[in-house]
Amino acid sequence: MHWIPAKLLSRRKVFVLFWRFLQAVFVVFFFLAIVAVYLNVNQINLKKTYRIDLKDELASSNAGGGGGGGNGLMTPNCVCPDSKAAPFPNAVEKKGNDVGVVDLLDGFDNQAYGRFRSAIEKTEKTQVQGLACVPGAEELCFQSLPYFGRVIVHFDLKGAVPRVAYLEWLLHVVARAGATGILVEYEDAFPYIGTLTNASSKTALTLSDITRLQTAAHKLGLTYIPLIQTFGHMEFILKLEEFVYLREVKQYPQGINPCDVRSMVLIEEMVDQIMDAHPNLQFIHIGCDEVYHLGQGKECAATDLSRDQIFINHVVNTALYIRRKRPNIRVLIWDDMIRGFPDNYLNDTQLTRLVEPVVWWYAFNPRDYLGQDIWKRYGETFGVAWGASAFKGATGPMRYWNNVTYHILNNRHWLDVLHSEGKDSKLRFEGVFLTGWQRYDHFAGLCELIPAAMPSLMINLLIYKYGKFDSLVYKEAAKLLECSSGFPIIFPTVSGRGQGAGSVQRGGETG
């Protein structure tokens, strides 16, 4: 190339370098485009499940320490975390003192689950000839009797409201797994109107959505029960400027003031709108749990009433209003605020004739924590009660993965309670609620989205349907979720055993 002038040769080198630079830029942009398409497809899948773009929702959750994702967050017809996953990934068999205990090596929170591990080892093992246990889960294998009462699945809509099509799919799946009804906790997902318009979120359901869900539930034979908070956990409405004056303690939007007559005006308006949207109700749940600041407001402190009397008066007034509108409707409340009431005190009120208590406990064995006499006391006062276990959202406000094992233990022991308690007393168990909490309260981050908890929901529904947990129950749960190769059941590590706190329960309890 000696015949090419030096100046021209220099220009050619510059051109070659520039061309190679353009090629490199093209490759980088091509790679970024592929990544963008992949992320967009995943975001579309999320939108198929939920009513909103979850970016803001997950950001708020992460800001609060919570996680919005989790295993199994996929499209409605594919909830398997991994179609090729073994039931117990990364599991090894322990030797010596820990023979038969499966240990995950993925580094989950050991200390928080020390008592969880102990609870598994203390669980009474029912030896059944011919019962095929899930390999590696022998501690969970048991045989009891099917439960033939009501089995109600709780759908909590306060945060990441699913799309109606997804909720309809959920109704079909839970009905096939043995559910007899659903409890829908609306909070700000209900389409309030009039003076309550601002209480509805931007992703609230419409009245046509609610009618559509009720129609689907009716066709499937599912009882539809709305839940409306009327005492505690009213942050979604008491946070609004126009309702601040109804807080019992002005700094906290958690509880409404039961000693202000204007509170009943608000509650009656909420009840009216909920009941108008549900014309064929058999049951309504009015909440009334965790009223943390009860009796601390100036108006209540100025009365001669005790804390318990204030609670009873407010609940009775609410239940009476509902029963006057629809005399045959049955009113349910969470029971935690009345557990400590003496029997004679309950008998002297209208409460026991107006409401039915739902006894909730989400730790391992409700019999250990609630005591033996609660069933006798409720039998002699109310005559009827419900139980409430959990399939998700009960092991920590920042949990983004679902511990199926934990919930299997909880529901197994609730099954024992439903069968054994009440046999020799006046108590009639009407049914059990499988609760699935989205948030611990209105301002908290998300704790386990619904798709991540579907394996837990399916297994625990089948536990009540068949009265056992074994490989057949596991395989049927996988079949219902269209998971051909199963799904993981998470065990914590053993090393944290006995080192202190158990899992944080919803409501601040520890298990």
Strand content: 5-15%
Helix content: 25-40%
Order of helices and strands: HHEEHEEHEHEHHEHHEHHEHHEHEHEH
Largest sheet: 8 strands, parallel
Alpha-beta content class: alpha/beta
Poorly predicted sequence stretches spanning 5 or more consecutive residues: 52-79, 81-117, 119-128, 492-511
- State the distance separating the first and last CA atoms: 84 Å
| Count of DSSP-assigned helices | 16
- Provide the gyration radius in Å: 27 Å
Mean of residue pLDDT values: 80
Number of strands: 12
Give the strand line-up of the largest sheet: 6-5-4-11-10-9-8-7
Structural shape: globular
Features of the shown structure:
511 residues; alpha/beta; 8-stranded parallel sheet; two-stranded antiparallel ribbon; 16 helices; 12 strands; globular
What's the topology here?
Layout: H1 6-49, H2 54-63, E1 91-93, E2 102-104, H3 114-122, E3 142-143, E4 150-156, H4 164-176, E5 181-185, H5 207-219, E6 223-227, H6 235-238, H7 262-276, E7 283-285, H8 298-301, H9 307-325, E8 330-334, H10 343-347, H11 351-354, E9 355-360, H12 366-370, H13 373-381, E10 384-392, H14 404-420, E11 428-436, H15 454-466, E12 468-469, H16 471-480
Parallel strand pairs: 4-5, 4-11, 5-6, 7-8, 8-9, 9-10, 10-11
Antiparallel strand pairs: 1-2, 3-12
